[in-house]
């Protein structure tokens, strides 16, 4: 079976000598929505940063059949839309339009296609009316949606989301869940929010200490109180 994402025996040590990943392996099928949970320092963010080559460790990562290495980074980054926990790390242009157009412009697409992609991306996150707004004046929930639109405009196969519900009020959080549920992309989301996991993700992977310690149906994992407690997670 062709997987959208395949990670095999990934190991990574930070330049300061701090080891973060010890042989992580996982695979995600096309269209699957998978949650990545675990305590702080489990290696979740480190893993996410490998998916589009921001970090490069030992082991193999394949995205849509393409191995992640220096010479394939352009192709890989078009396929993996990485959405950071803090939208201000992603939004740096004067207007929402320019932020969402940034990726397609850098891909060298013609102006008409860039505009089409921006409209489509903003519509899919329910932010069509915000095209001329100034990004840094928006609420946290609005910024998260725009940050997702900045990667959707690249037409990625995979969305990799780091703590997508962090900092959101209940209404914005519910809106985000509905938005992600309707997206056709394969989604991997790193999160501490187990209610979010239960509401949206059929499969859950638990990481702890730089390793995958559980990988299975969300329902069984969230019912396993001993497993959750062993890895610093509270049953939702």
Structure description:
With about 240 residues, the chain is an alpha/beta fold. It contains 9 helices and 10 strands. The chain has a 6-stranded mixed sheet with strand order 6-7-8-3-9-10, sandwiched between helices. Strands 2-1-4-5 form a 4-stranded antiparallel sheet, covered by helices on one side. A hairpin with a 2-residue loop joins strand 4 (about 60-65) and strand 5 (about 65). Helix 3 (about 95-105) crosses helix 4 (about 110-125), helix 3 (about 95-105) packs parallel to helix 5 (about 140-150) and helix 4 packs across helix 5 (about 140-150). The longest helix has 14 residues, at about 110-125. The chain starts with a strand and ends in a 6-residue tail after the last helix. The mean pLDDT is about 95.
Task: Note the topology.
Elements: E1 5-13, E2 19-28, E3 33-37, H1 44-51, E4 58-63, E5 66-67, H2 73-79, E6 80-83, H3 96-106, H4 111-124, H5 140-152, E7 158-162, H6 170-182, E8 186-190, H7 194-200, E9 203-208, E10 211-217, H8 218-223, H9 225-230
Parallel strand pairs: 3-8, 3-9, 6-7, 7-8
Antiparallel strand pairs: 1-2, 1-4, 4-5, 9-10
Helix pairs in contact: 3-4, 3-5, 4-5
């Amino acid at each position: 079976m062709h997987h959208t994402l395949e990670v095999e025996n990934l190991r990574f040590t930070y330049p300061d000598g701090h080891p973060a990943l010890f042989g992580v392996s996982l695979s995600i099928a096309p269209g699957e929505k998978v949650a990545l949970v675990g305590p702080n320092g489990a290696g979740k963010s480190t893993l996410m940063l490998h998916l589009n080559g921001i970090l490069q460790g030992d082991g193999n990562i394949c995205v849509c059949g393409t191995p992640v290495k220096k010479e394939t980074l352009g192709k890989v980054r078009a396929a993996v839309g990485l959405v950071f926990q803090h939208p201000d790390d992603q939004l740096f242009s004067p207007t929402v339009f320019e932020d969402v157009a940034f990726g397609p412009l850098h891909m060298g697409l013609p102006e008409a296609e860039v505009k089409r992609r921006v409209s489509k991306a903003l519509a899919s996150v329910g932010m069509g009316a915000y095209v001329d707004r100034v990004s840094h004046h928006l609420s946290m929930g609005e910024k998260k949606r725009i940050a997702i639109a900045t990667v959707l405009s690249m037409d990625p196969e995979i969305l990799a989301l780091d703590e997508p519900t962090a900092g959101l009020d209940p209404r914005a959080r519910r809106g985000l869940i509905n938005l992600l549920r309707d997206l056709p992309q394969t989604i991997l989301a790193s999160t501490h929010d187990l209610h979010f996991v239960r509401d949206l993700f059929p499969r859950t992977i638990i990481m702890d200490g730089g390793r995958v310690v559980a990988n299975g149906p969300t329902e069984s994992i969230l019912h396993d109180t001993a497993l959750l407690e062993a890895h610093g997670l509270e049953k939702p």
